[in-house]
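User: quick one, sequence for these tokens?
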């Protein structure tokens, strides 16, 4: 009876929390409200700004603000509880990030790789797409479901009086399965989805979407000496997978780029 009750609650939560990514139509599990999501993002971003050095380089900041503003305009819809903020952090890290609430961080290291505004637009379009697609809230929702599954597993083992040695084996198998079979694939899906939507945002902002390929080729070359895990164990698609996907997507966004670039002539 206890197992059935827990399972019923678990299924009720799962069925009640669904959303759709507007740009792709993909259905997603969503257990957080926009208010909850934005509050978490704002809190996290405030802490990052306290802990990391904010760049005072006027050229870098002007560039990021210019590109970010155009990307945000190209989204074409209002986001609940989101106020766009683009901050440059002083770091050699080849990275950028986005948080719920419209908060985007760009490290100065990646600005050296993204040499043109169009290449920077590929990066910032990708990060903005994470926000518009609510990937952060979806990831948190998935983690909650994984925890719920772990609880169900514990309840089931208790009901069947499984001995402790077997319980540890089952726990380890569940953890590995949840990571490799659920969390990592969804992380790669989010990255690929953000690439596709970000390409659309960049093109709609008047930036050449072909720059995304040149950017990722440079990123791949810059990180070629580092240790790379197999793609199925990674949170991101392999560089070559990413480049191949972008090359396939670019032709459909070239007309949008041609239509949009005249509106953004400086």
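Assistant:
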């Amino acid at each position: 009876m206890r197992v059935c009750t827990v399972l019923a609650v678990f299924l009720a939560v799962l069925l009640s929390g669904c959303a759709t990514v507007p740009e792709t139509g993909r259905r997603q599990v969503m257990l957080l409200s926009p208010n909850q999501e934005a509050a978490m993002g704002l809190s996290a971003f405030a802490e990052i700004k306290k802990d990391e050095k904010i760049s005072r380089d006027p050229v870098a900041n002007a560039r990021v603000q210019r590109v970010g503003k155009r990307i945000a305009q190209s989204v074409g819809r209002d986001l609940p509880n989101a106020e766009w903020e683009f901050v440059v952090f002083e770091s050699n890290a080849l990275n950028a990030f986005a948080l719920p609430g419209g908060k985007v961080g760009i490290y100065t290291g990646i600005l050296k790789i993204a040499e043109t505004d169009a290449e920077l637009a590929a990066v910032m379009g990708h990060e903005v797409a994470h926000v518009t697609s609510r990937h952060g809230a979806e990831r948190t929702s998935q983690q909650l479901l994984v925890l719920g599954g772990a609880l169900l597993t514990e309840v089931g083992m208790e009901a069947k009086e499984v001995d402790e040695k077997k319980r540890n084996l089952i726990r380890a198998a569940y953890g590995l399965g949840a990571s490799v079979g659920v969390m990592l694939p969804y992380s790669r899906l989010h990255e690929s989805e953000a690439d596709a939507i970000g390409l659309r945002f960049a093109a709609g902002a008047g930036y050449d979407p072909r720059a995304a390929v040149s950017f990722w080729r440079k990123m791949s070359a810059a990180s070629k000496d580092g240790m790379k895990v197999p793609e199925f164990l990674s949170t991101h698609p392999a560089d070559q997978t990413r480049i191949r996907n972008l090359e396939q997507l670019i032709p459909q966004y070239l007309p949008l780029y041609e239509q949009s670039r005249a509106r953004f002539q400086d």
